[in-house]
Amino acid sequence: MPRLIYTLVYYLLLPLIILRLLYRAWKAPAYARRWNERFGFFKASNPPMKSIWVHSVSVGETIAATPLVNALKTRYPDHRIVVTTMTPTGSDRVRAIHGDSVFHVYVPYDLPGAVNRFLDRITPELAIIMETELWPNTIAACHKRHIPTLLTNARLSERSARGYAKLGPLTRGMLQQLSFIAAQAKDDAERFIQLGHPRCQTMVTGTLKYDLNVEKTLSDKAKVLRAHWLSERLASTKILIAASTHKGEEEQILSAFEKVRGQHKDTLLLLVPRHPERFNDVHALITSQNLSVARRSSNEPVTASTDVILGDTMGEMMLLFSASDISFIGGSLVPVGGHNLLEPAAVGLPVISGPHLFNFADVATTLKAANALSVVNNQEELADRMITLLDDEALRKSTGQAGKRVVEQNRGALEKQLTLAASLMH
């Protein structure tokens, strides 16, 4: 009964969902395309192939899932790997990372007809859902068809758990239909269990984010890029990267940068907004503050007078981190919950974050315990921490190396999750 009510409400809200899609398309035109896929209409192979379905909602989850998807492609060469996302930016990441080696469509809306059309077309032997992307009708349809479902790299903040708890029987019924949950941390696992998932079908495997792949050629590429940027500047110039920033953060970062430059005049800021639709707005913000900006997407020259490089490209984050000296991770000075702290740590950068870290609480705790993460509360503290790191080369290097050790010591979630996937398929 709870799921029936949920479905009726979903149908009633569908016009508003479509209006929201149109609104998003106004800001990001890619949302206006491929609507048929969102209702389960697309061409698939005929006759149907054996498939493993991996769902990663957007960019962050898609990147986190990359080691898992690559391993599945290697271990199950006779299976088609289907990767779904919900956002155009996530879709772009799938295509950039995997190309034609996977079958990619948008995940359907959680309506019975759309979900059934989708499952009829991809016929998965296993459904792997990344992190916390749970939809009652989708889980129920898989359960009815005896398709095992693995919620992997699973995380659930206290705030999200409170939201799911309000749905009571709907949440409990959905979680009981999941075959297994591979949680990132003990706290995540306990929250899922408290909401109704069986303890015997829950395991703490750690996060795939520690298993991120750093290309062997990345360092060399970064050195070339850095030399290009600094060709007209002092070789001692330091680059501060502020990555995955959100609205309300860029103003604070630019103010902090102004204070930093009071003591370190030749410092460069590399500013990378989280969402592509905001690139032009952030560019306008930078120029409104009488700062000289070079757009990475246009390969605009970085001269002696350039203040800010705008990282307005996709798929280059690890390269940009590797070309930098100190990192700040956005979504944390505003209450978004933070973004991936491990990418800069993996290449040996000191990591700074704001106080809003509920999406990465366990990772943040681990990095702080290793003295690899500095948490600041406002733009003044951000500026002060950057100045401290710029003043002290030994501290900068030791902090960066501490983060790199944390990443190397915590690898291993991938193998555990692959073992679970294999057990569910047999």
From TrEMBL:
Residues 252-405 form the Glycosyl transferase family domain. Residues 34-211 form the 3-deoxy-D-manno-octulosonic-acid transferase N-terminal domain. Gene3D superfamilies: 3-Deoxy-D-manno-octulosonic-acid transferase, N-terminal domain, Glycogen Phosphorylase B. It catalyses: lipid IVA (E. coli) + CMP-3-deoxy-beta-D-manno-octulosonate = alpha-Kdo-(2->6)-lipid IVA (E. coli) + CMP + H(+). It comes from Kistimonas scapharcae. PANTHER family: 3-DEOXY-D-MANNO-OCTULOSONIC ACID TRANSFERASE, MITOCHONDRIAL-RELATED, 3-DEOXY-MANNO-OCTULOSONATE CYTIDYLYLTRANSFERASE. Signal peptide: none annotated. The gene is waaA. The chain crosses the membrane at residues 6-23. Involved in lipopolysaccharide (LPS) biosynthesis. Catalyzes the transfer of 3-deoxy-D-manno-octulosonate (Kdo) residue(s) from CMP-Kdo to lipid IV(A), the tetraacyldisaccharide-1,4'-bisphosphate precursor of lipid A. Keywords: Cell inner membrane, Cell membrane, Lipopolysaccharide biosynthesis, Membrane, Transferase, Transmembrane, Transmembrane helix. One of its GO terms (molecular function) is transferase activity. Its EC number is 2.4.99.12. This is 3-deoxy-D-manno-octulosonic acid transferase. InterPro entries: Glyco_trans_1, Glycos_transf_N, Glycos_transf_N_sf, Kdotransferase.
